[in-house]
Amino acid sequence: MELTEAVLTRRSRKDLAEPAPDTAEFTALLQAAASAPDHGRLRPWRWVLLRGAQRSLLGAAFAAHAPAPARDRAAAKARRAPLLASVVFAPRRDTSVPEWEQLAATAGVVHSLELLLHDRGWGSIWRTGREVDSPVVRETLGVAPDEKLLGWLYIGTPPPEQQEQSEPETGEREEGGGTSTQGNGAAPGPRAALRPGAPRRVPKRTAPVDALVSTALPPYPPSAGTAPAASSLRRRSAS
Ligand SMILES: Cc1cc2nc3c(=O)[nH]c(=O)nc-3n(C[C@H](O)[C@H](O)[C@H](O)COP(=O)(O)O)c2cc1C
């Protein structure tokens, strides 16, 4: 699969059945994903893989965290995929690299791994929930006090049909209860999103990506006192 196609077609998959990648394949893909930007090559993460009956241990921990009427449902969460790859953030303290950068690097690895799984035909979804802070869950997985559980990558085989997939973001913006598509001038009615093939409604909080990119520079110089010397500007433009 070509890279751009993989990035654009990856969607989180909730309906995941057997089989899942074996540990050797998972590790090989993680090795590749670990090439994501990582300041200092610290690899401040580790993974705990759960399959088969091991998932019941996690399910029991989920249930312990839940109120009595919701325990069965909580336990079943751990069986939603054949492979649960627990993401443990293990920030390194013996470095000047700030913790937030280490967390950012870890998120980059997770996304790269999702892409690589997708490229190989596997489905995945990153899930968290209140369970990540549950002492019982943390103890079950052996998460140390100075580590943070970032949730699980649920991994398996998605169904062949693509019905449950969410569409890649297309820039539609929800306005006034309906949807509108930038540029075409036609405002579809409120039921338009129910038609087969209609674009998925994007939640209000989702800003179009182009609104998050700015090419405007702040006024320069910000103040007379902070302007660089003309000589330094000359040196930079000459390099
Ligand atoms: C750190 C993180 C935690 C998430 N936790 C959950 C979760 O607990 N449950 C859930 O349904 N989706 C969760 N999501 C969102 C899904 O992983 C997924 O990104 C979302 O359903 C959008 O689907 P897409 O990846 O196809 O765009 C989480 C995403 C991230 C990045």
UniProtKB/TrEMBL annotation:
<dbReference type="InterPro" id="IPR000415">
    <property type="entry name" value="Nitroreductase-like"/>
</dbReference>
<feature type="domain" description="Nitroreductase">
    <location>
        <begin position="9"/>
        <end position="156"/>
    </location>
</feature>
<dbReference type="InterPro" id="IPR029479">
    <property type="entry name" value="Nitroreductase"/>
</dbReference>
<protein>
    <submittedName>
        <fullName>Nitroreductase family protein</fullName>
    </submittedName>
</protein>
<dbReference type="InterPro" id="IPR052530">
    <property type="entry name" value="NAD(P)H_nitroreductase"/>
</dbReference>
<feature type="compositionally biased region" description="Low complexity">
    <location>
        <begin position="223"/>
        <end position="232"/>
    </location>
</feature>
<feature type="region of interest" description="Disordered">
    <location>
        <begin position="153"/>
        <end position="239"/>
    </location>
</feature>
<feature type="compositionally biased region" description="Low complexity">
    <location>
        <begin position="181"/>
        <end position="200"/>
    </location>
</feature>
<dbReference type="GO" id="GO:0016491">
    <property type="term" value="F:oxidoreductase activity"/>
</dbReference>
<dbReference type="Pfam" id="PF00881">
    <property type="entry name" value="Nitroreductase"/>
</dbReference>
